[in-house]
UniProtKB/TrEMBL annotation:
Organism field: Jatrophihabitans telluris
Stated name of the protein: Sigma-70 family RNA polymerase sigma factor
Family label: Belongs to the sigma-70 factor family. ECF subfamily.
Xref: NCBIfam families: sigma70-ECF
Domain RNA polymerase sigma-70 region residue range list: 27-94
Superkingdom per UniProt: Bacteria
Keyword line: Sigma factor, Transcription, Transcription regulation
Record-linked Pfam families: Sigma70_r2, Sigma70_r4_2
Length: 201
């Protein structure tokens, strides 16, 4: 069976459990770039991120028999990566003390149901056009790198990898309120960078 031809988690899991190398290479092809980006949210060096991802793949292979399917295979894989990256970040002494992330949620920005009381202003269309510019893209990448680790992880999962809020909470083991605040703060920082860059053009 050729790589990329697995349609369901259950089929892929069955093949991984059977030691199917093609299934494993299919999974690596699908998720290696995402895992690298996610690991880089926690660790300082690209080489360290690659080590984290290698440990993630090893953990998947040795733990696939324990996968119970309570989440998607992708979510489980990302959780493994986050756990490995966090452990490595501790060794690098890059963890962010809880008191530095501020209050878990600023209640005035949300209704009781968790919706925005006043949604953030959409980025101007000009920013989307300017984002194609290489210089602006480099500034945005640098701005993402400058975010505190948890903000960086949430922004990476939501805006780069396309995970939902619930999936992001599951991967990072955080509350929905915390996820929303971290995402909002990260996006606000990036919006400021984009606005300044567009205004300067």
């Amino acid at each position: 069976m050729r790589a990329g031809s697995f349609d369901t988690d259950s089929e892929l899991v069955d093949r991984l459990r059977a030691g199917d190398e093609v299934a494993f290479m299919d999974l690596v092809g699908r998720y290696q770039p995402q895992l690298i980006r996610l690991a880089r949210s926690f660790v300082t060096r690209a080489e360290t991120a690659e080590d984290v991802v290698q440990e993630t793949w090893l953990a998947l292979l040795t733990g696939i028999d324990r996968f119970e399917g309570r989440s998607s295979l992708r979510t489980w894989l990302l959780q493994i990566c986050v756990n490995r990256a966090r452990s490595t970040a501790v060794q690098e002494q890059r963890t962010l003390p809880v008191e530095q992330i501020g209050p878990v949620v600023d209640a005035e920005h949300f209704t009781e149901s968790g919706a925005w009381t006043s949604p953030p202003t959409p980025w101007p269309d000009l920013a989307a056009d300017a984002a194609r510019d290489a210089e602006l893209a480099a500034r945005i990448r640098a701005a993402v790198e400058d975010l505190p680790p948890m903000q960086r992880a949430v922004v990476t999962l939501r805006d780069v990898e396309g995970l939902t809020g619930a999936q992001t909470c599951a991967v990072l083991s955080i509350t929905d309120a915390n996820q929303r605040v971290l995402l909002h703060r990260g996006r606000e920082h990036l919006r400021t960078v984009i606005t300044k860059a567009v205004s300067a053009q």
